[in-house]
Structures are given as C-alpha cells and as structure tokens.
Design goal:
By secondary structure, the chain is of the alpha/beta class. The chain is 46% helix and 15% strand. The chain contains ten helices and nine strands. The strands form two sheets. Strands 6-5-4-7-8-9 form a six-stranded parallel β-sheet, sandwiched between helices. The chain has a three-stranded mixed β-sheet with strand order 1-3-2. Strand 4 (64-67), helix 4 and strand 5 form a beta-alpha-beta unit. Helix 2 (40-51) crosses helix 4, helix 2 crosses helix 9 (192-208) and helix 9 packs antiparallel against helix 10 (217-232). The radius of gyration is 18 Å and the shape is globular. 39% of the residues are buried.
Length: 233
C-alpha cells in the first residue's frame, strides 16, 4: 500500500503502533479527528499467536529474524519484540536499509536488541532464531549481495532449533523460494495470507467497533484456502 508515510502529516494523531513503526495503513475518525494506526504489526503478531501451537518452545526468549529492510521490516521488528524476542537479527542485501531500520527502531525505543547479520561467517556464530518474518519479494539471488544474504538465511534455517517463519510475500504466489527453503529445513511455514487476514480484521475493528472474535474468521480462512486450491488446480 503506497503513501503509508506520506499521509502522516495530514493526520491529527497516531496510535502507539503507528508512531512506533512510522507508517500508517489505516485511518479512523474519532471526535472529528483523523487518527492513524498501523495494523500490519497486528497481522504479524497474530500470524504467530494463532498458528504456533507451542510458542514457549518455538520462539519465546529466542532471537527473532527479519529478512528485508523496507517499511514492512519495521512492522515485523516491532511485532517480534512484542512477542518476546529480545534480540532480532536483520538480513538484507542493502546494508544502508538495515542501518536505517535500526536507527528508526532505536529512536522509538525498541531497537536495542537489533543486530545486522551481514555474512555467512557471522550467521554461523550466532544462536538460531525461533521466529522469522520474511519481507522481501520472491526472486532468486543474482548480485553478490543477494547471494550472500541468501547464504546467511540458509545457515540460520539450518540451525538445530526449528521455529516458525511468516512469509509476508503472498502475491502473485503464496509459495516462495525462502518459504520452500524453510519447509525443507524443518520449519513451520505460515503463509502471508494469514497476516493479510489479521491486519484486515484489526482494520474492521477500528472502523466498526466490532471485536475480532465476532468476525467470520473461519469463513474468511476457508475462502482463502479454497482460492489457493483453485490456483494450484
């Protein structure tokens, strides 16, 4: 969604999530004022909470990992920190983007545990993550920086502890190279449609006042599953 940052000067206020991430994807009018929020953070959080059966064993008190360095990476970092990941690794082809993410998150008070894992050697030396959010498009690595980033990812996926990975890329296909690598390595793969659903439910809550538990969650999931089956067929 474009203009998530550009819209902010036109708003009267931001929620805690909107301020922390520095991007707005949802606007609601309250008492004549325009309030902006960011429900992507909720989409990431709920994707893990609703799909991981044993979070204490899978990702709590373990490092997290965010693949990417764009705007979605900030939402992912924020969500993983809120899920209890005191350390969050960042892997990306562009070091400048990672530096910008760390700088932003630090100014907002949740960047102290961020660590840029740049090389395969650094990846070998760190503890394996328990929760991963992949925020990059689905394409094969071509440049030297992309190849090195993919090596880092493969090394981290191969660590003895196997957790859960949320693959945020779901268009044009929900199954990606990174998701396939993770599945072959023994990780639980959560499709990006889960994040799309739960951020959307949060938007509906803001706009209508209905609680998420009152919404047709099962029906929405069934509809997406049916659409995915039709695509495969």
């Amino acid at each position: 969604m474009p203009h998530k940052v550009a819209i902010i000067p036109y708003l009267d206020a931001l929620t805690d999530e909107g301020q922390a991430v520095g991007a707005c994807n949802t606007i609601v009018k309250r008492d004549g004022k325009l309030i902006g929020t960011n429900t992507d953070t909720i989409g990431v959080r709920e994707s893990f909470l609703q799909n991981v059966a044993e979070p204490e064993q899978v990702y709590r008190d373990r490092p997290g990992l965010v693949i990417g360095g764009g705007g979605a990476a900030r939402s992912a970092v924020y969500a993983l920190v809120k899920l209890g990941c005191q350390t969050v690794y960042l892997v990306n082809r562009d070091p400048a983007e990672v530096t910008a993410v760390i700088a932003w998150c630090t100014t907002q008070g949740y960047g102290a545990g961020l660590r840029h894992v740049r090389t395969a050697a650094e990846a070998e030396a760190v503890e394996g993550p328990g929760a991963i959010v992949s925020c990059v498009p689905n394409f094969p690595p071509v440049t030297p920086a992309e190849v090195e980033a993919r090596k880092v990812i493969e090394i981290l996926l191969a660590k003895p502890h196997k957790g859960a990975i949320l693959e945020m890329c779901y268009h044009p296909a929900v199954h990606t190279e990174i998701g396939d690598l993770a599945q072959r390595a023994g990780w639980q793969v959560i499709l990006g449609t889960e994040a799309m659903l739960y951020q959307g439910f949060e938007q509906v809550k803001y706009w209508t006042g209905r609680e998420v538990k009152e919404m047709p969650i099962a029906a929405a999931k069934d509809a997406i599953a049916a659409a995915l089956r039709d695509d495969v067929a």
